[in-house]
Design goal:
Number of helices: 5
Helix content: 10-25%
Order of helices and strands: HHEHEEEEEHEEEHEEEE
CATH architecture: Alpha-Beta Complex
CATH superfamily: Fumarylacetoacetase-like, C-terminal domain
Shape: globular
Strand content: 25-35%
Number of domains: 1
């Protein structure tokens, strides 16, 4: 077990590495390791540091849930990550690859939280990742302490963000890169659908003395995989074969 002072020092290092676009260098240190509880303590200490520097929490992500990512990572969650308002981008944004560390994307569904914790809207998003693991073997603690690899989220146009149409009905989510379909599957990765992801997150946050607020964004996880992207790529997420949002990677 590591001390609170060690957690704080790790959080400082993690924030510095994140700013330098070299996230998680401590996990390359020989013999370094955290348990899951310590990893969340590092994530939460990092969040406090980033808020103290002027950032704002926009909500949370539920990660490592669906068959695509659990197969890629070789481990099963769920895990929680923290979202920040400065890293929310609009549909159609051109991303600069140098602003990330091995940029990768996920197509997934998101929830907007309304009054009394109710789901106010559901819509597709593109989650952005710094796709790097530094430990000899991938593990949940590194994933958690590196904030679920999150590096931002892209939201669709406002017309997509004003409905709960897809909350209950069956639908499919697809990711296309340069016009090629990389994956298609159901919307919700957890039992109970959107409500299952939200219930898990609320219970998890309560155990860490946190809670959702009106207006928060929640990424509910994905049934699809995580895909590295490269300069010149064009990414589109489709909902029931209709293009919902897209981004591109600068050359």
């Amino acid at each position: 077990m590591i001390l609170a002072t060690d957690i704080q020092q790790l959080a400082v290092r993690q924030v510095q590495d994140y700013r330098a676009r070299t996230p998680g260098t401590c996990f390359a240190d020989a013999g370094f390791g955290l348990d899951v509880s310590e990893a969340y303590a590092v994530q939460d200490a990092m969040t406090k540091l980033r808020v103290a520097e002027g950032e704002h929490v926009a909500g949370y992500k539920v990660g490592c849930t669906g068959p695509g990512t659990t197969a890629q990572f070789g481990m099963a969650g769920p895990i929680r990550g923290t979202l920040f308002t400065d890293e929310i981008r609009d549909d159609g944004t051109v991303l600069v690859p140098e602003a990330f560390c091995n940029l990768a994307i996920e197509g997934e569904m998101a929830l907007q939280i309304g009054h009394n914790g109710a789901i106010a809207a559901v819509f597709p998003v593109i989650e952005l990742h710094n796709f790097v693991f530094r430990a000899p073997e991938k593990n949940l603690s590194e994933l958690i302490a590196n904030n679920g690899l999150n590096a931002g989220v892209m939201l669709p146009a406002k017309s997509w963000r004003a409905s709960k149409t897809h909350l209950e009905r069956s639908a499919t989510l697809s990711v296309r890169i340069n016009g090629e379909v990389f994956d298609t599957d159901a919307l919700w990765p957890m039992p109970g659908g959107a409500g299952g992801s939200l219930d898990w997150l609320e219970d998890h946050l309560a155990a860490h003395d946190l809670q959702l607020s009106n207006g928060d964004l929640v990424l509910a996880g994905t049934t699809l995989g995580l895909y590295p992207v490269h300069p010149g790529d064009a990414i589109t997420v489709y909902l029931d074969h209709q293009p919902a949002l897209q981004c591109s990677i600068a050359q």
